[in-house]
Known about the structure:
Layout: H1 8-22, H2 24-42, H3 47-71, H4 89-109, H5 111-114, H6 117-124, H7 132-156, H8 159-166, H9 170-183, H10 185-213, H11 220-250
Amino acid sequence: xxxxxxxxxxxxxxxxxxxxxxxxxxxxxxxxxxxxxxxxxxxxxxxxxxxxxxxxxxxxxxxxxxxxxxxxxxxxxxxxxxxxxxxxxxxxxxxxxxxxxxxxxxxxxxxxxxxxxxxxxxxxxxxxxxxxxxxxxxxxxxxxxxxxxxxxxxxxxxxxxxxxxxxxxxxxxxxxxxxxxxxxxxxxxxxxxxxxxxxxxxxxxxxxxxxxxxxxxxxxxxxxxxxxxxxxxxxxxxxxxxxxxxxxxxxxxxxxx
Length: 257
């Protein structure tokens, strides 16, 4: 486990785009397939959400495996979407169960700030009242939930690949992932800023300008929706690829199976 310079946080995202550029059409196909699969399973009442959360670590390993194949000069193929389900699946499922419980715990804790608005919105899909007071409560609750989610992100960032490729137990992987993230906090801050700019600020400004320019034009809403979908299917595999770049950087001195 290495401590890397802060500037490497930007390089992780840059390398993510590099991986995407090696096989863009296949990446889009994989991203759309993943999105459709998760959406179909997720609509099942109660069971669907749990199933998606439990399978998340295995799918994360699948995206890591895709990057590793590209790094080795091999072609990217659609069946790799399920590569993460081939090894140590029991520990990966345990990791997914812990992840689900952590998210549920955060949402339950958020009730202290908004009387359950965020919990009902995220888990039950209930709309939030549009009065100003409810809006303010939801903002405060979301900020508190994010603060609680940060250590969860740190614990799970490297955990799936440590379980799948290094044979660690779920608990050991969470431990090493948390402290690897903590020791590299400078790089992660730079990475977070870079992702916020590239995936949030830039598309937000671009869509705002387009919305103003196309105001009143026939089919404007459809065009903007299509462009938003294109951005998502590009950013989804790029971000997963950047996770792999961070893993290769921080655990460069470790031998994976």
